[in-house]
Amino acid sequence: MNTQKYGVVNLKVAQVSVIGAGRVDGELEKIAERVGELLAERNCIVINGGLGGVMEAVSRGASRRGGTVVGVIPDLSDGNRYLSVRIKTNMGHARNVIVAQSGDVVISIGGGYGTISETAIALKTGKRVVAIKPPVVLPGVELANSPEEAVEKALRC
Q1: Is 113 helix (H, G, I), strand (E, B) or coil?
Q2: What is the CATH number of the domain that holds 129?
Q3: Number of domains in the chain
Q4: What does the pLDDT look like over 34-52, one tens digit per residue?
Q5: Partners of residue 27 on adjacent β-strands
Q6: Owning domain of residue 70
Q7: Which tens digits make up the pLDDT trace of 114-143?
Q8: Percent above pLDDT 90 for the chain
Q9: Using CA atoms, how far apart are residues 48 and 69, in angstroms rounded to an integer?
Q10: What is the pTM assigned to this prediction?
Q11: Residue 129 zone, left/alpha/beta (φ > 0; ψ -120 to 50; rest)
Q12: Which residues, 6 or more positions from 31, have their beta carbon under 8 angstroms from its beta carbon?
């Protein structure tokens, strides 16, 4: 985790990348929204791809609880309306590397090929990945059955 010193106070802030499909059904949307709420309640910075689906749902949940949400957007658009910070990359899928590498840990929710690529990048570079309902289970991925379990596993040192 990133540790920053401010005067005599030592603050730890976890940056958590949340990845998943750009289009979701109601169940995955609720899961992602709850993950966002839980991360914000624990003062984590939420990082995602900034668009719709899981990205928008986790942003909405974190924003609702007053959290900071960073969207690493693949184009020059504004991304979803729940972002606190917008990083407009105009890099297309190459931005997946930035999303995967910017978190201290990654939580994956559902997904497709983009999510699989982000998962592989994170694992290859030594990041922990906790997944709920992954499309495939890559070696090294920790599985979780609920938003609460995923966040607890992700934030366990």
Answers
A1: helix
A2: 3.40.50.450
A3: 1
A4: 999 999 999 999 999 999 9
A5: none
A6: 2-155
A7: 999 999 999 999 999 999 999 999 999 999
A8: 90
A9: 8
A10: 0.92
A11: beta
A12: 57, 109, 110, 132, 133, 146, 147
